[in-house]
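Same chain as my last thread, 212 residues:
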Amino acid sequence: MSELLASCRDVVVEYGRGEACVKALDGVNLDVHAGERVALRGRSGSGKTTLLHVVGGLVEPDRGEVDVHAAKVAYVFQSSNLLPTFTAYENLSFAARSAQENSSAPEPLALLQLVGLANKADNLPGELSGGEAQRVAIARALAQRPALLLCDEPTGQLDRDTGTRVLDLLDALQREFGFALVTATHDEEVAGRLDRIVELEDGRVVGEAAAA
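reply #2:
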């Protein structure tokens, strides 16, 4: 078995109190190993995004244990979340500062070239198409040289053809760089491209299987 990068044990996340309390996660267990490609699949409200945020340290669980051993964890969100007043190049440069101690961290322009957008280096996010902005967001995540990349519905705001191109790019980059990839999605086609599917419903893991 490859190196364990992240684990959740009996994780509970609650919102609200008393009768209004909602369990976003209810006793969830999850392991992610180096190089793995995992889909967290479920309908809206199933807990998949909350679980992704727990693994990445954005949400603290109310109960349970979360251990993250990955040296670097990076995100690609449903919306690109680029800094609107920074060019594509500047967005990557800002992200790369956290990886300065790693001499092998790619240069921003090299990353833009890798995602096919070297000619957009001086463009602001508002001057990019949705697919271009998401490709810059992927390059920004890679600027941090993550061992674990977390993607929350990365094609949710894109049309089918553009979304497929973004997924193809993620596949190619994962093979090249070898990071573990965890993607939250409701889309069976997206989930089927990965190696393992973890099904969530009402904050619980209700099934787990290798992708067909």
